[in-house]
Recover the amino acids of this structure.
């Protein structure tokens, strides 16, 4: 066990009034997301976390796996400004399905496909549950977006336009999401929304989309509407 890990370990176990196991479980992803992670510290952490696991907490294996994700998706799955989606609070079945599509190659992503292929079905389930249980404030406040653009996005989301049904008609009020089929879209980083809508549009060019799907919706959007949706959604409360 490295000095570094020992030092943090003793810090964790010496906090008065906390159960060492519980505390360490919560700190798990934090510990592992540090820049000095090595195979040895990870191995040590697995042993440590496993030996302190209590039945009321999330599976420690899921937390160790999650440390592979937080470098990009944020420590609590809040997402990132460079087109990395928010996972915190997202519907677990939706995320599990997304991961299985990356794995099968049916959802395009040069980044996520190879990552998903390293995960077993049990791990995708655990990770989806883990991030779904997280809560985190939004990132990427679209500070550069004009108030007019944000307002146009709000109108599109709430009332729709001649070419498109209201976003919230499917994604629920304030974009909170509705079950496994309609993901939450509130507080998504703007660049992710733009990229994803472009991806749906590219799909629509391949073959005529089924009516009522997101591919069909995206196909009707113009660039202004995409920019407006992204600006508005990114500054909604999660
Ligand atoms: C190198 C950066 C990176 C890492 C590491 C990473 N992701 Fe991703 N992830 C992305 C990006 C970028 C996207 C958006 C890709 C797209 O839609 O084409 C994404 C998309 C996703 C999505 C789809 C979310 C949605 O709402 O559509 C899920 C779920 C996901 N990642 C889970 C994970 C999990 C679980 C891990 C860890 C095992 C992980 N990611 C590791 C960058 C990363
Ligand atoms: C007719 C119902 C419907 C309407 C209207 C609709 N959506 Fe969707 N949307 C969906 C469905 C279904 C999905 C999931 C598609 C998938 O994962 O393949 C989705 C997915 C998305 C995603 C990807 C989320 C993620 O986490 O990967 C974004 C972003 C999105 N919609 C934005 C919008 C915006 C912006 C509008 C309004 C301009 C809108 N949607 C209107 C049904 C709808």
């Amino acid at each position: 066990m490295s000095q570094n890990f020992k030092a943090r370990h003793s810090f964790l176990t010496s906090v008065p009034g906390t159960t060492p196991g519980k505390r360490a479980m919560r700190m798990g992803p934090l510990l592992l997301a540090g820049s000095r992670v090595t195979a040895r510290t990870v191995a040590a952490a697995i042993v440590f976390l496993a030996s302190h696991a209590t039945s009321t907490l999330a599976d420690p294996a899921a937390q160790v796996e999650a440390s592979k994700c937080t470098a990009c998706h944020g420590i609590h799955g809040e997402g990132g400004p460079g087109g990395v989606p928010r996972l915190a609070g997202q519907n677990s079945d939706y995320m599990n399905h997304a991961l299985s599509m990356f794995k099968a190659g049916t959802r395009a992503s040069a980044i996520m496909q190879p990552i998903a292929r390293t995960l077993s079905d049990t791990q995708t389930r655990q990770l989806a549950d883990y991030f779904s249980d997280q809560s985190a404030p939004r990132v990427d406040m679209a500070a550069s977006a004009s108030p007019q653009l944000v307002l146009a996005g709000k109108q599109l989301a709430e009332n729709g336009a001649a070419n498109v049904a209201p976003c919230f008609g499917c994604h629920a009020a304030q974009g909170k999401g509705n079950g496994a089929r309609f993901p939450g879209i509130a507080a998504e980083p703007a660049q992710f929304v733009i990229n994803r809508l472009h991806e749906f549009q590219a799909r629509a060019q391949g073959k005529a989309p089924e009516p009522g799907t997101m591919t069909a919706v995206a196909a009707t959007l113009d660039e202004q509407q995409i920019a407006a949706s992204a600006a508005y959604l990114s500054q909604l409360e999660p």
